[in-house]
């Protein structure tokens, strides 16, 4: 295991900000830590980097306990959200910084700079001033600089935080391909779930200094463990339910659940794709309250009488109009019985 945190704890003013966290990152793995603001993501990175001492527990790299090992001796690379490039240096000067600190000779540094600029798609930009570059180009320089000393672990803090959406979507695909090619081990933190799911082999969702869930993007997306994770991922159709056999009693009436679901009182997630529109007489009667265009589908907000709103995902052409009366039935394949843990 390249990185291992055991029982890692950090307290500020007596309050745990990292609370007995256990986390492992294997060599060549890309792990994205995801969570709301203040959940402890940056503190986790700082602990691994050696910028924040632990109040309890242990951080090991390649099996070696890092207690007392200063940041610059840990062999980890860090890239922060605001790049922190040296504005007075050109691109090459920025990228060569790490190798220079490690005592690399001039020729070796120049070769490394050229190789890295090629890699991040900035060939020929060595002499350009950092201040003249676009946000996306600066991001690439920051990445090249972080990769230059060949860190055994690369850590990214909101790597694409400042960029506009289309650029982020493009860069995240490029980054994943690049890390795969280089075999880089990556620990990244972001509050953007789209970014985390696109970049990671494994996502770790944090809540109040603890790990709420860890799994592949598909596992976490398909089976959020509890209401907190489900809501954090943007699912709003979550209600209390009582499961008996393959049906659940809810404020929306009886809802089918998958075979083998846990029984009894729980929180229930109904994915918008599992909310089917049928004839008014054939299901739960609802009024269309609003519609939101989502590119691939339309999110239709439905108001049943005396129960919380439901969101349905409808094909672009089939979406009903606000004010329409519709019936709703539920598809058990799109329903997840969540743990009974309290919500946020
Ligand atoms: N040096 C410090 N002194 C006191 N409290 C701190 C310190 N650093 C962080 N905190 C607190 O610890 C908590 C976790 O902070 P952290 O920056 O790790 O969260 P985060 O998940 O990275 O948040 P964000 O997404 O907003 O960056 C926050 O409540 C923050 O106010």
Structure at a glance:
It holds the Pfam family TOBE_2. The chain has 344 residues and is an alpha+beta fold.
Low-confidence residue ranges:
none
Instruction: Give me the CATH fold name of the largest domain.
Output: Rossmann fold
Order of helices and strands: EEEHEEEHHHHEHEHEEHHEEEEEEEEEE
Strand order of the largest sheet: 6-7-8-3-9-10
Helix content: 10-25%
Number of domains: 2
Largest sheet: 6 strands, mixed
Query: How many strand units?
Result: 20
Strand content: 25-35%
CATH architecture tag of the largest domain = 3-Layer(aba) Sandwich
How far from one another are the termini? Answer: 33 Å
Tally of helical segments? 9
Which CATH C-level class of the largest domain is it? Answer: Alpha Beta
> Bound compounds, please?
adenosine-5'-triphosphate
Give the overall shape, derived from the CA principal axes: elongated
Keywords: ATP-binding, Nucleotide-binding, Transport
Domain ABC transporter: 3-233
Pfam families: ABC_tran, TOBE_2
Protein name: ABC transporter ATP-binding protein
Please tell me about this protein's structure:
- By secondary structure, the protein is an alpha+beta fold.
- It has 2 domains: 3-227, P-loop containing nucleotide triphosphate hydrolases (Rossmann fold); 228-338, Nucleic acid-binding proteins (OB fold (Dihydrolipoamide Acetyltransferase, E2P), Beta Barrel), CATH 2.40.50.
- 24% of the residues lie in helices and 34% in strands.
- The chain is built from 9 helices and 20 strands.
- It has helices spanning 41-49, 91-95, 97-101, 106-119, 135-147, 165-182, 193-199, 217-222, 227-232, and strands spanning 3-12, 15-25, 30-34, 56-61, 64-65, 76-79, 153-157, 186-190, 202-207, 210-215, 238-244, 247-250, 253-256, 264-270, 275-278, 284-293, 298-304, 310-314, 325-330, 335-338.
- The strands form 4 sheets. A 6-stranded mixed β-sheet has the order 6-7-8-3-9-10, with helices on both faces.
- α4 packs across α5.
- The longest helix is centred in the middle third of the chain and has 18 residues, at 165-182.
- The structure holds adenosine-5'-triphosphate.
- Adenosine-5'-triphosphate (ATP) is lined by residues 12, 17, 35, 37-43, 191.
- Residues 3-233 form the ABC transporter domain.
- Keywords: ATP-binding, Nucleotide-binding, Transport.
């Amino acid at each position: 295991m390249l990185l291992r945190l055991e029982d890692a704890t950090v307290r500020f003013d007596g309050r745990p900000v990292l609370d007995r966290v256990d986390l492992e990152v294997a060599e060549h793995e890309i792990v994205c830590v995801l969570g709301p603001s203040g959940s402890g993501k940056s503190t986790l990175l700082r602990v691994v980097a050696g910028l924040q001492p632990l109040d309890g527990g242990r951080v090991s790299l390649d099996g070696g306990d890092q207690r007392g090992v200063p940041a610059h001796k840990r062999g980890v690379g860090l890239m922060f959200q605001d790049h922190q490039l040296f504005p007075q240096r050109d691109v090459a000067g920025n990228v060569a910084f790490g190798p220079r600190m490690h005592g690399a000779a001039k020729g070796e540094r120049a070769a490394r700079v050229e190789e890295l600029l090629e890699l991040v798609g900035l060939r020929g930009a060595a002499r350009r001033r950092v201040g003249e570059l676009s946000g996306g180009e600066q991001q690439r320089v920051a990445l090249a600089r972080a990769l230059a000393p060949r860190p055994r672990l690369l850590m990214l803090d909101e790597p694409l935080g400042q960029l506009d959406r289309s650029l982020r979507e493009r860069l995240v695909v490029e980054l994943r391909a690049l890390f795969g090619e280089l075999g880089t081990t990556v620990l990244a933190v972001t509050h953007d779930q789209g970014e985390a799911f696109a970049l990671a082999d494994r996502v770790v969702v944090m809540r109040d200094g603890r790990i709420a869930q860890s799994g592949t993007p598909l596992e976490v997306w398909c089976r959020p463990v509890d209401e907190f994770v489900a809501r954090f991922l943007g699912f709003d159709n979550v209600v209390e339910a009582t499961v008996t056999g393959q049906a659940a009693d809810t404020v929306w009436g009886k809802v089918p659940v998958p075979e083998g679901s846990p029984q009894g009182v729980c929180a229930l997630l109904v994915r918008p794709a599992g909310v089917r529109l049928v004839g008014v007489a054939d299901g739960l009667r609802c009024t269309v309250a609003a519609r939101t265009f989502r590119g691939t589908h339309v999110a239709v907000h439905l108001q049943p009488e005396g129960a919380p709103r439901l969101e349905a995902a409808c094909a672009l052409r089939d979406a009903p109009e606000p004010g329409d009366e519709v019936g709703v039935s539920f598809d058990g394949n799109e329903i997840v019985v969540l743990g009974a843990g309290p919500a946020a």
